[in-house]
Design a protein that fits this description.
Helix content is 48%, strand content 9%. With 233 residues, it is mainly alpha-helical. Helix 2 packs parallel to helix 3 and helix 5 crosses helix 8.
Length: 233
């Protein structure tokens, strides 16, 4: 297997890792500073973030997810993921390497693991994805309340919405309603559709704005593209 093929496979694995707040791959965001795989199967990934003080819980999720994604590759025997230039780098890097979890990694500071935080961000991703899908539809509130996922034409936005709903254990099959409560999975009634769509649009707008800000801050901090940023954006 060529080094280019190996590099592509590692980047493809890292492309499955998302910034939990922005719901975008860390590759397209430019967060992967370097990624390599030695002949002995030792993988090493360096991550970077827009600021020195990015939230440590978000950073921990990305480092841990990158570790899991790369470690799952068949030809990887051991994995090291290093977050550079961050105030909590040592605690995060050591904690992920030891598979210690967030609470043990930040003993005395953290009181909960990050499952609930991840779920909160996934619910926002579902709402943002709902807006993406609904933007292309010219339907009345009553029609939107009754339409099912299987009634829609396949698209990247619809596929993404299905995946985010599955991540949360929400209905995502063809018979599932397009508009659902992101917590309970219950269908949205026709009377509640306008408010639901406004919330979805606000969520999507907020994610887009924050993504733009993070890209700008990262570009200001580092003048080089991240690995995989050009190829996958």
């Amino acid at each position: 297997m060529t080094s280019a093929t190996v590099g592509s496979r590692i980047l493809a694995a890292l492309a499955q890792v998302r910034d939990p707040e922005l719901d975008e791959p860390i590759t397209t965001l430019g967060f992967v500073a370097s990624a390599s795989l030695g002949a002995d199967g030792t993988a090493e990934v360096h991550l970077r973030l827009p600021t020195y003080f990015c939230a440590p819980n978000f950073a921990y999720l990305m480092v841990a997810d990158a570790y899991d994604s790369v470690s799952a590759l068949d030809d990887v025997r051991s994995t090291t993921v290093i977050l550079d230039d961050h105030f909590a780098s040592e605690a995060i890097n050591d904690g992920v390497a030891a598979r210690a979890g967030f609470v043990r990694s930040f003993e005395g500071e953290a009181v909960d693991e990050l499952d609930s935080l991840r779920a909160d961000f996934l619910r926002k991703a579902v709402m943002a994805g709902t807006d993406q899908v609904c933007r292309t539809l010219d339907l009345s509130p009553a029609q939107l309340a009754s339409i099912r996922l299987g009634d829609l034409s396949e698209s990247a936005a619809l596929d993404r919405l299905r995946r985010r709903r599955r991540d949360l254990g929400l209905p995502a099959g063809d018979d599932a309603h397009l508009l659902i409560d992101p917590k309970s999975g219950a269908p949205i009634g026709a009377d509640a559709v306008p408010l639901h769509l406004r919330k979805a649009r606000l969520t999507r707008t907020s994610l887009d704005a924050n993504t733009g800000i993070c890209r700008g801050m990262l570009r200001h901090r580092y003048s080089t593209d991240g690995q995989g940023e050009d190829a996958l954006s």
